[in-house]
Each structure stands twice: as C-alpha cells, then as structure tokens.
Amino acid sequence: MTTLQLLFDEYWPHLALLLSVGVGGTAAIHAAMTKSDVRAAIAWVGVIIMSPLLGPLFYLIAGINRIRHDHISDQRNRSLKPYTITPPVASVDIAQLAAPQFTSLHTLSNRLSRFALRGGNHVRILQSGDQAYPAMIAAIDAAERTIALETYIFDNDSQGRLFVEALARARQRGVEIRVLIDAIGVRYSRPAITWSLRRNGIRYALFMTNPLGMRMPYANLRSHRKILVVDGRIGFTGGMNIRENFVSTIAGGKSANDAHFQVEGPVVLQLMAIFAHDWEFTTKETLPFEKWVSHDWDPPEPHVAARCIHSGPDRYVASTHSLLLGAFAVAQHHIRIQSPYFLPDQVLMGAINTAARRGVLVDIVIPGQNNLRLVNYAMTAQLDQVVRAGCRVWRAGGNFNHAKLTTIDGAWSMIGSSNLDPRSLRLNFELDMEIYSRSLARRLEDLIDLEISHSEAVTLESLAAMPFRKRLRNRIIWLASPYL
After folding, report:
1. Is 52 domain-assigned?
2. What pLDDT, in 10s, does the model give residues 190-241?
3. How many helices (H) and strands (E) are present in the chain, helices listed first?
4. DSSP for 384-450?
5. Cβ neighbours of residue 462 under 8 Å, at least 6 residues apart?
6. This model's pTM is above 0.70
7. CA-CA distance, 465 to 392, in Å (whole number)?
8. From CA 377, how far away is CA 137, in angstroms rounded?
9. Distance between CA atoms of 154 and 256, rounded to whole angstroms?
10. In 3D, which of 294, 289, 288, 291 has the Cα closest to residue 268?
11. Residue 203 lies in a domain
12. Is the pLDDT of residue 19 over 70?
C-alpha cells in the first residue's frame, strides 16, 4: 500500500469530519445570508446542521434560488417595455366601479404591478374542462395569426391530444405558434406531450429545464402560470392545467372541478406581455410586439376593470402576497376565499384573523377530498388558528375543487394560478388578475356560496375530536409545510 493510502485509511474519519464541516458550514452561511424569511433561514440551517452531508445536498437541489434577481428583472424591463407604454391608459373611477375603500388598494397594486388597471374588459367564467377546453380549442381553430400557450401541466392524454391536433391544424393554416410548458409539469404524463408537439412541427420550449448550463430540473422554481392568447385579441387564464381529469364525460364521478376564465379587451395585452417575457427568458427569442398583439378590441358587455399581477422568485416575489394583505386590510363586510391548498404564512394568517376580529365575515372554503394528502394534513394542522379568530372554515363535499378564488365586499376579486401556500407565494412563477367589478364579484361569490351549501363547517370541537395520532401526524407534516 502507498503512503497516501495508509494515511487515508488511518485518517479518513477526520477527513470526513472536515469535509462535512466545510460543506455544511458553507451551506449554512449561504442560507443565513440569502434567505429573507427568518423562518426559512432557520429551517434550512437546522436541516444542514442536523445532516451535515445530506442536508447541504438537499439545500443545493431545493433551497437555492439560482435565478439572478437583477438579471431576470432587467430582462423583464426590456421585454415588457413595448407592452407597458402603449396604448394610453384611461382613468378608472374605483369608487364607482367597486367601493370607496378600494381606492387605497388601487394605489397599492399600482406599485406592485408594472401593468396599469385597464377598463373595457370582458371576463367570462368557464366551469372546469367541460366548458374551458372547448372554448380554448374553438379559439385556436379560429386563429389567423398567432397562438401563445403557457401551462404548468400539459398531459399526453385525450384532452392534451385534442389541443395538439388543434394546434397542428392552426400551423397548417400558417398560424405562428409558441408553446411553453414547465419542465416539471411536463413529466406528469409518460410519454410526454412534447413528442406529439415535435412530430407536428409545433414550436415549444420547457421552462427552467437547463438554466446556466446545469443539467438538472429545478423542482422548486416552477412556472405555474396558465396563459392562452390567440391573435393577441382573446385570452384565457386561471388555475386549470390541460388534463382529462377536469372533464366529467371522461373522468366521470372522479372528475375535478375548477374555474377558468376567457378574457377580452386590453388586459389581453398584459397576458401576452407575460408570455413574451417567459418565452424570451427561456429561449432568448424576442416576440415582435406588433405581430403578437392586437389593438382591435371589441369585447362584449359587461365590461370590467382588470390588471395582471405576476409574481415569481425575483423582484416580484411578494406581489401577490402584498396584494392580498392590502385587500384583507380594506375589507369592511365580507371576505370569501376558496383555495385547494390553504397554507398561508403567519403574516397572511394574521391579516385574515385581524379582519375577522374587526367584524368582517370571513369564509374560507377548502376541499373535503384533496388530491395532495400531505398538504391536506398540513392545512388541517393550522385551521384552529383561523377558526379561533372567528373565521368560518368549510370543507366542501363532492369532488376535489382546484379553483383559486377570492372576493372582497362583493366588489373586488382575484383570480388566477396562485394558491395560498408558501410554494405559490414565494417559489413559483404565478399569474393572477385583480378585477374591480360588482357584477363579476357577485358571480364568483355565487360559485363560492354553492360550494359552502354542500360543505361541512370546521369547528374547534371537530378538530379536537380527531384522534391524537392524527393530530400529531398533521402537526409533524405542518412543520414541513414550506417544502410541500
């Protein structure tokens, strides 16, 4: 044996100790210096210290935000500039559209979003895949110039193939098409839908599949946005992916429910702006403004004032979170929240509880049957906090509902892709839309109230009646909620 081998055999425990201390210490310092949330910093440092080798590896994969804030924000400034300076913005009377207390919320959202609040939009509610998918495919079939499609999940199933066939028909007509799918979401079905897109000559890209030359998917940095823009004139957005379990004729009694939205008017320009930025960030291709937008809007009545709120792990990381804090602060009568994954952080939880203690009626609707068991356990573990503050929590009966809806005082609404959980509010790239309209808020309230009508109220007594082993399980899973 060589001298080097002898030394290694004798001193390898010491070398392993030095390696673990060096790697663990470096990772712990990085977490402490880069995490803006003290709870996240403490959690990551704890994981690293408890497991000096595996902890840093887990932190390397799931804990580091490798997107350079300055780089992506500067790129967004360049790619969004044409979309934000034209056309001119007409003044919007918030007191007339909604209520006087929303004037301050309007001021807040002006500072959170690059986009102006625009009047003259029409928003149509589409119930699950039964209504949304046919409307989206009909728009694709009517396309004359361009189609931009971005989604988190695009399954290779019966509905996914219908979309590919419609896109292929559009391509044969000479329509220019771009499809952007999240690199994690595309893995939900095998084989992936990308094979069909490629075979039909449809140009696509995968979001965050190989950033900065590193060959690994980034599980914690996902594009959760759902956007379809056709001819720059008609748009679709919301929280629904492309998969057949949202279609009742296929999934039958196990179909999932959701709400998607067809929009027309100047807010479609904002949807296209966000897609254009995401596409440029992924592929480095700039989509020409004049080719991909339309100024020929003639939306049907009724009209609403709306704007897009985009968020992600960059300078816009807190946009949705801050908007919700402002909305809960101005509420005077009634807050309705429907969310499949209700795991707000303590700041957001405090805002909700404070509103309830001020006398605002707060209704929170969550699924009785959840598609993510661990999330359901974590949600249940903290429901006592909102119930104790006076909020009414409802577990809906029937099939799983994936809709993300919020209304305030029957006048302001937020729709989109964001869940009320740490992943959506801190890690994902999300897209929501705030809408000032009494008529649309009433229609959304009707949907939420319909869920409440077949729901069971969650009480402190019902939570305390759960067996201790289940309550303990829920609390243990809740401790890991930032990573779910």
Report:
1. yes
2. 899 999 999 999 999 999 875 444 444 445 678 899 999 999 999 999 999 9
3. 19, 15
4. HHHHHTT-EEEEE-SS-B---EEEETTTEEEEES--BSHIIIIISBEEEEEEE-HHHHHHHHHHHHH
5. none
6. yes
7. 18
8. 37
9. 16
10. 294
11. yes
12. no
* CATH number of the domain bearing residue 446: 3.30.870.10
Tokens of 244: 């057949």
Paired residues of 409 in beta bridges? none
The pairing of beta strand 361-367 with beta strand 334-338: parallel
**Percent of residues, the chain, with pLDDT higher than 70:** 82
- Residue (of 441, 451, 452) closest to 401 by Cα position: 451
Least confident of 10-14, 121-125, 177-181, 472-476: 10-14
- Provide the 8-state DSSP code for 231: T
Provide the number of structural domains found in the chain: 3
Q: pLDDT (tens digit, 9 = 90+) per residue, 72-89?
A: 455 555 555 666 555 555
Q: pLDDT at position 90, please? A: 57
Buried b (16+ CB within 10 A) or exposed e, 405-424: bbbbbbbbbbbbbbbbbbbb
Residue 78 lies in a domain: yes
E strand segments, 105-248: 118-127, 146-151, 176-182, 204-207, 227-230, 234-238
Confidence at residue 67, expressed as pLDDT on a 0 to 100 scale:
52
CA distance 160 to 112: 35
| Domain, as residue range, for 260 | 69-89+117-307
φ, ψ for residue 334, nearest 5 deg: -150, 130
Mean pLDDT of all residues in the chain? 86
Residue for token digits 């939420």?
A: 448
Determine the pLDDT at residue 311. 86
**362 lies in some domain:** yes
Q: Provide the token pair at 396.
A: 């809906």
